[in-house]
Amino acid sequence: INQSDLGKKAGVSRQTISLIERGDYSPSVTLALKLAKIFQVKVEDIFSYVEGNEDDE
């Protein structure tokens, strides 16, 4: 699936999908739930967390 199609399915722009992929934007819970449903994964899988990453504090 490309960014444009994913954005349409999730109700957001291609740019938003691009920002999420690059790690420059964290999706809202609502958007994360939509993405999890589209990809048939747990919502926890949408969020990536690197232990010890001080940039997130």
Percent range of helical residues: 40-55%
Approximately how much beta-strand content do the residues carry?
A: under 5%
Based on CA inertia axes, which overall geometry fits? globular
Please tally the helical runs, counting DSSP H or I stretches of 4 or more residues: 3
Order of helices and strands: HHH
Uncertain segments of ≥5 residues (pLDDT<50)? none
Tell me the distance between the termini.
32 Å
Q: Would you count the extended β strands for me?
A: 0
Strand count, sense and barrel status of the largest sheet are: none
InterPro entries: Cro/C1-type_HTH (IPR001387), Lambda_DNA-bd_dom_sf (IPR010982)
Pfam family, one: HTH_3
Keywords: DNA-binding
GO molecular function, one term: DNA binding
Report on this structure.
By secondary structure, this protein is mostly helical. It has one domain (1-41). It has helices at 3-10, 14-22, 29-39. Helix 1 (3-10) crosses helix 2 (14-22). The longest helix is centred in the middle third of the chain and has 11 residues, at 29-39. InterPro entries: Cro/C1-type_HTH (IPR001387), Lambda_DNA-bd_dom_sf (IPR010982). GO terms for molecular function: DNA binding. Residues 1-46 form the HTH cro/C1-type domain. This is Helix-turn-helix transcriptional regulator.
